[in-house]
Amino acid sequence: MKIERFRVQNYKNLKDVTVEGLSDINVFFGQNSVGKSNTFEALALALWLLNARAPKSTVSLDSICQKLAIAAPVMPLDGNEPLSFQITVRWEGKDVSGRATEVKSSIPSEKRLICDIRIAKEPKNDIVSTISHSWENEKGQSVQFPDDNLLPFVPLLHTIHAYRRLGIERQGPGNGTIAVSHDNLKKALFYAYLSSDPRQKRRLEAIRRILADPPFEFGLLDVALNPETDAIDIGFVRPEGRLPIESLGSGFQQLLLVLGQVFLNDSPIVALEEPEMNLSPQNQQHLLGALRRLMQDPAIALEQLFISTHSPYFEFAENFYDVTLDKQGHTQVDRATPQKHDRHFAIAPVGPETGARLNSLNQIQLYQDVLDDLNLQRGDMVFFVKGEAGRWEIYPEEEVLAAMKDAWGNDGSGE
Predict the structure, then answer these.
(1) How many structural domains is the chain composed of?
(2) In the structure, what pLDDT confidence band is assigned to residue 174 with cuts at 50, 70 and 90?
(3) Is residue 199 in some structural domain?
(4) What DSSP character marks residue 170?
């Protein structure tokens, strides 16, 4: 199951936002405070209402905000217009939620479920949600479907929030079935280590393999328990010994926090906020490659990924959306054309490695042939010189210094 389109009206500063053409991986690029997180919150709320509610029901807004980690208020900041969502979901006739076994045989193949959710605010901070839905075939024609009670099998959105920190966790009661987040990841790894569930075992082994193999090569992920404090200890075993995760850099921890949640949650739809957090450019690209591979792994539930970012290193061929504010302070989400896409990101080549486009930080990436021809290494100084013909040229520092000596005399005094 994948979301193909959604529309949000009157959620916080999302006055009227439509996001279309969604694919497996979708990147939302924008500066701080333009509404990327609000867009993910709105989608999470809509999917929760579809998953957990009857066609019409009254629920506590406070309880929803607490469940979904949403900051109030969620209703529009200007005016009293009703909050509404429209979502188009493509069903592929397979059990993607892990809970639809009893209706699996009757799920329509290659059909679209179109849902409309209207929310009105009631006294005592309650809300009334009204849900209507219909089915379409691949040609956009309305179709009837006999088993129409599939809304509870629409999966929830799991959000990996930008705030991610490993804390102290101890062995305690519980069965490890709650959603995995940054504050219970160690316990989730511990449960997976002890579990007899073959799915959890495969997922844990997949985490260990990805982190141990190139390009990360962190060592073998190890899960242990401190007998004195009952604290769960996560570390990496290397030839020189075992290193606790806390003694490694924050980039190591961030990779484990992201990949651990993706692996151990049985969530087909995931929103990942700011994956570049504390990661080098190389590890940002490595993380993206790992996420791509995960989407092809049948042992992992991941079907669709939403990414919010400020980083040009998350450029790739999948969908890219530009998130901005209009003059009234309302969020705008525009699907980028190839021209817009290239304006933000420098690493899309023009021709066979003959040029690069300027990104949003006024940066370009020099191709390997250029680095080899100029004998450049990391940290070397380069100069941009405007020649007599008015064209800009690039020179390594040694050539510029040699030219200056020739022009000023061998001693460099200019006399």
Answers:
(1) 2
(2) low
(3) no
(4) B
